[in-house]
């Protein structure tokens, strides 16, 4: 007989809609709510905002360009999404960050969906909550790079596979085709790792559970699903690669395709040989070397604050499996293989940057979510870990004091008053949250403590953009907005020798600069591809700039470091300092006085 309480319980379909709506809304608030407070951080955010801006400007969606030159470092999927945002919402901090943040939110929702399909509602909610508030995932969800997009697409693919083999009928086809589609999206975002990593994880999972156990999950009808998946993958991933290769062929003077010499080479050589193989195996090519242990040390840091529960969760997984890893909790084994392989894969590489291991966190979130659901139900204990988490709140709040004074002593606080207010508010949130958590722990109210801990971490993470603003380089946004209203068609924008710190300048001015000095390393291949076309925008210092100044019709706005201002004013007495932001300086040579001396 159905009771009144049963009638009040939401149905299965309603709980799916309710949960996903709440997760989406809270994640959007966390990832987008205060994104307008922080200027773009160059070089990365400037670079990955300028490339789609140039796409919109020149309507070329096949060949990505940076500073007007071909830029073959990565495929264009993320640029296309960014370009769509720019076309519809213009150029502002939110429109430039929204695509990346919404992709991160999609990753959180996908984690919930997969965890619920594999386990239960509680595990799914905990998994989504843990992922959304894990340090590295949250940071990459608010910094405009390609790493979050490829992490989410690969994670969605790997989730799709493990769910697909646990389903039958139409849902097996939906999840199976999603596996192929998300791999294709990952390939179109950051290249071959988008298919290599998911397929490698599946292969290792097959070895782990045994050949018979693995293939026993498939039937003859799955052959058609596999063929459809391959066709879908090729239909999504292949066309752009063909178009880009046709639009950017090798020149006659190019050496063999396997050569390390890039002179005369085309898109395919740079994209496949240089970006996929040389950067992975050659330290001089990648210029991003770190020791082999780098990612093993970073992975736990990226899981802060929930890393304190990781040893307990792993121990309970091992205990619960009771040596039957091939047949029991195989979904958790899959998650463990997923995370471990990615860390090992990038640890072997000669190119190491922290964002590379972002894809491990959806898997680790599910592992922790599985344990947290048991903890919630009273089937596990974590008193020492809970006290450690509360202590981290106090330690984090206290850490702001020495950090502030160290940065101030080194002259790296460009706005000390803002830094003091932001740090104080963040520290206050941490202290209040930690104190509430301690009070609940003393009363042994485990569930209330869990809710308090998540609420505290959520509020703390809201401060990412306000706090990150203190630590990042100054932005040229304010300087650009200062001159934007008065900038004429004949006026010139000149970046003096240091394009890297001004990566966001063309974004806000919506025009390409003239550069004093050689092209930056990342732009040299594109410059070689169009040798002669961009010579007028790259000037020798200082004779080249002097000739440019003499022949210029309009005013010249020159952007340099503040340390160079005195020397430049000696070379060009008519250059006036008209703006300054941190170590950035903006100088102007008026139209009537633009003869360099």
Strand line-up across the major sheet:
5-4-3-6-8-7
* N-C termini distance: 95 Å
Bin the helical content.
55-70%
| Average predicted confidence as pLDDT | 93
As a whole number of angstroms, the C-alpha radius of gyration is: 27 Å
Main sheet record: 6 strands, mixed
Strand content: 5-15%
The oligomeric state of the chains shown is single chain
Number of helices: 27
Number of domains: 3
Q: Tell me the overall shape.
A: globular
Q: How would you classify the helix and strand content by structural class?
A: mainly alpha
What is the tally of beta strands? 8
Q: Stretches where pLDDT falls below 50 for ≥5 residues?
A: 1-7, 593-597
Question: What does the model show?
Answer:
The chain is mainly alpha-helical and 597 residues long. It contains 27 helices and 8 strands. The protein has helices at residues 4-8, 12-32, 44-58, 77-89, 93-118, 121-132, 135-140, 147-164, 169-190, 193-209, 211-215, 221-247, 267-281, 283-286, 294-302, 310-321, 330-348, 360-376, 383-409, 416-442, 446-461, 464-471, 477-483, 505-509, 524-529, 543-551, 565-571, and strands spanning 65-66, 69-70, 492-496, 514-516, 538-539, 556-561, 576-581, 584-589. Strand 7 and strand 8 (584-589) form a beta hairpin. Helix 9 runs parallel beside helix 12 and helix 17 runs antiparallel to helix 18 (360-376).
């Amino acid at each position: 007989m159905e009771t009144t309480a049963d009638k009040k319980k939401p149905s299965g379909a309603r709980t799916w809609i309710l949960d996903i709506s709440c997760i989406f809304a809270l994640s959007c608030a966390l990832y987008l709510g205060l994104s307008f407070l922080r200027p773009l951080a160059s070089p990365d955010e400037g670079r990955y905002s300028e490339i789609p801006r140039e796409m919109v400007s020149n309507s070329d969606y096949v060949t990505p360009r940076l500073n007007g030159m071909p830029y073959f470092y990565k495929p264009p999927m993320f640029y296309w999404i960014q370009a769509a945002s720019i076309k519809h919402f213009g150029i502002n901090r939110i429109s430039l960050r929204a695509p990346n943040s919404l992709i991160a939110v999609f990753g959180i929702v996908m984690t919930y969906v997969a965890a619920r399909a594999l386990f239960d509602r509680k595990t799914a909610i905990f998994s989504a909550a843990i992922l959304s508030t894990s340090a590295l995932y949250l940071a990459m969800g608010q910094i405009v790079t390609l790493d979050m997009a490829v992490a989410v697409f690969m994670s969605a693919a790997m989730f799709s596979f493990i769910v697909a083999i646990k389903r039958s009928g139409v849902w097996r086809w939906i999840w199976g085709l999603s596996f192929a589609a998300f791999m294709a999206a990952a390939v179109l975002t950051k290249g071959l790792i988008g298919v290599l990593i998911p397929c490698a994880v599946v292969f290792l999972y097959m070895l782990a559970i045994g050949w018979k156990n693995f293939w026993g999950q498939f039937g003859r009808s799955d052959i058609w699903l596999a063929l459809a998946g391959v066709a879908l993958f090729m239909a999504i991933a292949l066309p752009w690669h063909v178009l880009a290769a046709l639009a950017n062929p090798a020149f006659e003077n190019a050496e063999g395709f396997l050569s390390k010499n890039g002179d005369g080479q085309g898109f395919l050589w740079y994209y496949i040989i240089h970006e996929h193989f040389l950067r992975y195996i050659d330290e001089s090519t990648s210029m991003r070397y770190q020791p082999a242990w780098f990612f093993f040390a970073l992975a736990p840091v990226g899981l802060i604050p929930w890393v304190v529960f990781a040893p307990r969760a792993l121990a309970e997984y091992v205990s619960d499996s009771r040596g039957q890893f091939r047949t029991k909790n195989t979904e958790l084994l899959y998650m463990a293989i997923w995370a471990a392989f990615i860390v090992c894969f990038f640890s072997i590489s000669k190119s190491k940057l922290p964002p590379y291991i972002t894809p491990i966190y959806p898997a680790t979130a599910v592992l922790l979510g599985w344990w947290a659901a048991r903890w919630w139900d009273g089937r596990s204990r974590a008193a020492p870990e809970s006290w450690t988490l509360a202590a981290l709140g106090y330690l984090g709040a206290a850490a702001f004091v020495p950090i502030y004074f160290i940065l101030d002593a080194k002259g790296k606080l460009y706005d000390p008053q803002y830094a003091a207010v932001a740090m104080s508010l963040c520290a206050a949130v941490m202290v209040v949250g930690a104190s509430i958590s301690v009070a609940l722990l003393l009363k042994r109210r485990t569930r209330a403590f869990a809710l308090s801990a998540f609420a505290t971490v959520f509020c703390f993470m809201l401060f990412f953009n306000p706090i990150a603003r203190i630590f990042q380089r100054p932005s040229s946004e304010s300087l650009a907005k200062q001159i934007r209203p008065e900038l004429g068609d004949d006026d010139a924008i000149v970046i003096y020798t240091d394009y890297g710190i001004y990566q966001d300048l063309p974004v806000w001015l919506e025009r390409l600069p003239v550069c004093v000095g050689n092209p930056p390393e990342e732009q040299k291949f594109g410059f070689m591809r169009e040798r002669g076309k961009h010579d007028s925008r790259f000037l020798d210092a200082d004779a080249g700039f002097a000739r440019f100044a003499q022949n210029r019709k309009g005013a010249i706005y020159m952007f340099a470091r503040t340390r160079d201002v005195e020397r430049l004013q000696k070379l060009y007495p008519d250059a006036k300092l008209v703006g300054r932001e941190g170590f950035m300086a903006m100088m102007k040579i008026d139209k009537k006085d633009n003869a360099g001396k």
